[in-house]
Design brief:
This protein is an alpha/beta fold. The protein has 19 helices and 23 strands.
């Protein structure tokens, strides 16, 4: 246990700092601070010594040099139980500093401003701050370090509980947080500078800094351990920002499937429901109301929907909630829930209800783990303009067919390759996913529709990649499909188009594919 006597406070993010420093003063902890932070403390009648007065050395170079001084770093790095260190401090008139409260220049928010240029970004690279944080974290046996305003309340609780002192286990935890903080900071700088190197599409070194949000009972299977980690700055609208309103603990597979459901439903602006089972949409529907959208999605494949993940893009209302209770569901995701809907779901307290803000922005990079490395690519966020697609068949689509083709194409984006989706009236009729052969995916989609007593006559079909042979066209035409949307680009495109014309099918090429593995 170490009793705190002196704190160095230098924060760019001044959230809740006054409340924290007031608590420090209650324990007679001396405060040393830098320019802007010191001015704020003085304005609020908090006794503070400015760093330049403390070191007897002025800030210089437009503030680039403030804390880089032996009196600061000697005080932070000295070990309390090392006699030689204490003697050296006394000989040189250096007091010990046993608390460092520092967060860094706002580099990340600076570069996120569209008006930011390289010069402004460079000036927002903190030097003294990370050095103090790392020094304090290294010497956690003698010093506590705080970098996150979200930790202030817990820190204060610890300080009050131990009458102005902190135990080593807590200081060690703060040190871990501190090194994670500086690692993320350096990562953002490195990636920004790499992006400004026009010769590199991807940074030469890629560092990922994740924070553990929760441990899980197990992974995909009970013999696998698992945990859920999140990015330090989670983009609005991402599933990782979920708020769990009720229900059992989330599993590894729950979250994996929920991400597919949520990303898919965000593609649509009208009321839409997506039902996912084992990482594939088994039913998607856009309608006038959420209730009708759910009914349409569920009817595609009621068997697969059992124990599935349901996502909607509008507020969950009572009518939809009442209907959903008739099926077994693992997770429901919505941007909001009416009070009436919440009361209905309370009758099934094990259903996991997640609330996530709607935001259609995509992450810049997509990652896939392989043995010994990562595959990194830009996100598949291409937005199709259906009116610019190339009609390659003799027959031309009408406006209603174009709408259905566009709907089917958006769904195909989130179905595992090889993906075939039969749709009509903005509702999936049959989904074939993850097969080694595209023609097999076509047959499976049709079989699923048949099992659900769905007629495919007059339907449209989306294929996430080109048809390599005409056999897939022969199959879907045999089930009554009338339109096909696909990327094109096969060496046998002429043969495939000829098959479409023979069957009286409309076919359009997108020029882009949506493989998802």
């Amino acid at each position: 246990m170490i009793k705190l006597s002196r704190a160095l406070v230098s924060v760019s993010d001044k959230s809740n700092i006054l409340k924290l420093v007031t608590i420090l003063q209650n324990f007679n902890i001396e405060i040393i601070s830098t320019g802007g932070t010191a001015a704020l403390l003085k304005e609020n009648n908090i006794k503070v010594t400015e760093v330049s007065d403390y070191t007897q050395f002025p800030e210089m170079l437009d503030g680039r040099v403030k804390t880089l001084h032996p009196k600061i770093y000697g005080g932070i790095l000295a070990q309390k139980d090392n006699v030689k260190h204490i003697e050296t401090l006394k000989k040189n008139g250096i007091p010990q500093i046993d608390l460092v409260i520092v967060n860094l220049y706002p580099f990340e928010s600076t570069i996120n401003n569209p008006k930011c240029n390289l010069e402004l970004a460079i000036e927002n690279i903190d030097i003294g701050g990370p050095t103090m944080v790392r020094a304090a974290a290294k010497n956690f046996k003698s010093v506590a370090v705080l970098t996150n305003p979200n930790e202030y309340d817990n820190f204060s609780k610890q300080l009050i509980e131990h009458n102005g002192a902190l135990d080593e286990a807590y200081r060690f935890k703060l040190a871990q947080n501190a090194f994670s903080h500086t690692a993320h900071y350096d990562k953002v700088i490195s990636e920004y500078l790499s992006k400004n190197n026009k010769q590199e599409n991807f940074p030469s070194t890629l560092t990922q800094n994740m924070n553990k949000k929760m441990d899980m009972r197990y992974g995909e299977n009970p013999h696998q351990a698992a945990a859920f980690y999140v990015e330090p700055k989670i983009q609005n609208g991402s599933l990782a920002n979920f708020k769990q309103i009720q229900g059992k603990e989330l599993s590894f597979n729950n979250l994996n499937d929920s991400d597919t459901a949520w990303e898919c439903v965000k593609l649509f602006s009208a009321p839409t429901c997506v039902i996912v089972k084992h990482a594939n949409p088994c039913g998607v529907c856009t309608s006038i109301t959420i209730k009708d959208a759910y009914k349409g999605a569920f009817s595609t494949d009621p068997t697969s929907a059992f124990g599935g993940i349901i996502s909607i893009n509008k507020e969950m209302d009572a009518e939809a909630a009442e209907l959903i209770l008739n099926q077994f569901v693992e997770v429901i995701i919505a941007p909001s829930y009416s009070e009436a809907a919440l009361n209905i779901f309370k009758t099934k307290i094990n259903i996991r209800l997640l609330q996530v803000e709607i935001n259609t922005l995509k992450n810049n990079l997509d990652f896939k783990k392989i043995g010994g490395g990562w595959l990194v690519q830009t996100s598949d966020d291409h937005k199709l303009d259906i009116n610019t697609c190339k009609v390659v068949s003799k027959l031309k689509p009408n406006a209603e067919q174009l709408e259905d083709l566009n709907f089917a194409w958006e769904v195909a984006r989130y179905v595992k390759s090889n993906a075939i989706i039969f749709c009509k009236d903005k509702k999936t009729l049959g989904v074939g996913a993850g097969q080694m052969s595209r023609v097999d995916s076509t047959r499976i989609a049709a079989i699923k529709a048949e099992n659900a007593n769905i007629i495919l006559t007059g339907s449209v079909v989306a294929s996430d990649a080109f048809f390599p042979f005409r056999d897939g066209i022969d199959v879907l035409a045999g089930y009554g499909a009338k339109c096909v949307i696909q990327p094109g680009g096969s060496i046998k495109d002429d043969e495939v188009i000829e098959a479409a014309d023979e069957h009286g099918l409309i076919m359009i090429f997108t020029g882009i594919r949506h493989f998802k593995h």
